[in-house]
Amino acid sequence: MRISKLLVVTVLTLAMAGFGSSVNAASSPASGSTVNIKSNVLGEKSFTGLIIKGHTYVDLDGFVNCLPFQINSKALSYQSETKTFKVLNEDFAIPTPLLQFKVGSDTFQHNDESFRLSDPVLLIQNRIYFPLKDIVSVYDINVSYDSQTKTVQVSKE
User: Beta strands 107-110 and 99-102: pairing type?
Assistant: First the structure.
């Protein structure tokens, strides 16, 4: 009788341990590790991004913090059917360039010009992630990694 109780307790313990580790794995970023990012492009901003296959990705908030112009929140548009994200430049008090990104694509549009990305735009847990360096380099913005502080630096200098 004691052996069967011990066996049941052991099986339940192992099952709970397995469940706990699967919950932790599901709540962490599925495709990368987090990294701290500091941007001084339009004022000092700190936020986190993801490192995926050796490249820095940022979500929409991080993306906006790395651009050399302000974006009116009314200018943002996402079409779920086509998985296309746009920053519109029409009829808003803050003039911005027209930007267009498509999830999975290795190009993006800036006004009427197409630019190649070394890595595609991603959709992770219903959030769009942009490959940082390729996009901001269009605006002569530098992206570097400070190994001492383990922080990605984004600067206009």
Answer: antiparallel
What number is the average pLDDT over the span 99-124?
Answer: 94
pLDDT of 26-74, one tens digit each?
Answer: 333 456 799 999 999 999 999 999 999 999 999 999 999 999 988 888 8
Residue with token string 């099952």:
15
* Residue 2 scores a pLDDT above 70: no
Token pair of 41 as six digits:
């492009």
Task: Please write the tens of the pLDDT for every residue from 75-104.
Answer: 888 999 999 999 987 666 656 668 999 999
Torsion of CA 57, 60, 66, 71, to 10 degrees: 160
Q: Closest by alpha carbon to 62, among 43, 73, 40, 46?
A: 46
Q: Read off the amino acid at residue 4.
A: S
Rounded CA-CA distance 152/80 in Å is: 30
The burial of 27, by beta-carbon neighbours within 10 Å (0-12 exposed, 13-18 middle, 19 or more buried), is given as exposed
Tell me the DSSP string of 31-80.
Answer: S-EEEEEEE-BTB-EEEEEEEETTEEEE-HHHHHHTSSS---GGGEEEET
The sign of the CA dihedral 25, 50, 32, 51 is negative
